[in-house]
Specification:
The chain has 225 residues and is an alpha/beta fold. 31% of the residues lie in helices and 24% in strands. It contains seven helices and twelve strands. α1 crosses α4. The longest helix is centred in the middle third of the chain and has 14 residues. The protein is globular and about 50 Å long.
Length: 225
């Protein structure tokens, strides 16, 4: 079966507090998104990548792609007004039955092992969503109050969220909803069961300045420069 990764990197990264989108910030001399692309290219030899970028940064994207191990396996599309619309743009290029990874471009520490486990689980179950159990005390806030939630029932969801293409593409025909904060929520709204697999604590999303420091330390420990 064909394999695609829709790498979503079309956001402005406002929470980082910098003019430069976080996917283009440097870690050990290379852009954040470069590490993400390299890991997927190295892990699955017949994988094709669809990289979704902001229109204003397409030229930068092409220059980064040219430094990867196999630029011929990467195509770029322009992102939409929301993550939902950006993913939909990427999916429009997939025309044959496939396994599709949808991954946050700024989760640059994703491991080959997690990618492989997502692939195997999606082939078996149709969906594979990496998640880690919450370790902190969790409280649910309402308009007037808040209450503690049983921690063991709370999961932190990660990417790559992985699907058989028929399920995913069909789900993305739905009208956009603010409830659709990730791909699992889109697919679940179509009545499809979501299968969780073990994620990784190091598979962090680069969102705030402290995340750059953490990611750099992890990359140094892995020897990835």
């Amino acid at each position: 079966m064909n394999k695609f990764a829709v790498i979503v990197a079309a956001g402005a990264g406002s929470r980082m507090g910098t003019a430069q989108p976080k996917q283009f910030m440097h870690l050990l001399g290379k852009p954040v998104i470069w590490y993400t692309l390299q890991t997927f290219l190295k892990t699955i030899q017949d994988l094709e990548i669809i990289l979704v970028l902001p229109e204003a940064h397409l030229k930068t994207g092409h220059s980064i792609i040219d430094t990867t191990i196999d630029p011929t396996r990467i195509r770029i599309v322009t992102g939409g007004n929301s993550r939902f619309h950006s993913v939909k743009q990427g999916l429009s290029l997939i025309k044959q039955p496939s396994i599709v990874f949808v991954h946050d471009g700024v989760r640059c520490l994703v491991s080959p092992l997690l990618i492989d486990r997502c692939l195997q689980a999606a082939e078996l179950n149709g969906t594979a969503i990496p998640a880690i159990e919450a370790v902190d005390t969790i409280r649910l806030g309402t308009r007037d109050s808040n209450k503690q939630v049983e921690r063991g029932k709370v999961f932190i969801i990660q990417t790559p969220q992985t699907f058989q293409s028929g399920l995913l593409i069909h789900a993305y025909q739905n009208e956009y909803s603010e409830y659709f904060t990730d791909d699992a929520s889109v697919v679940e709204a179509s009545g499809i069961k979501i299968h969780l697999i073990d994620g990784e604590p190091t598979n962090i999303k680069i969102t705030r300045p402290i995340d750059i420091t953490i990611a750099q330390k992890i990359l140094e420990e892995r020897g990835l420069e």
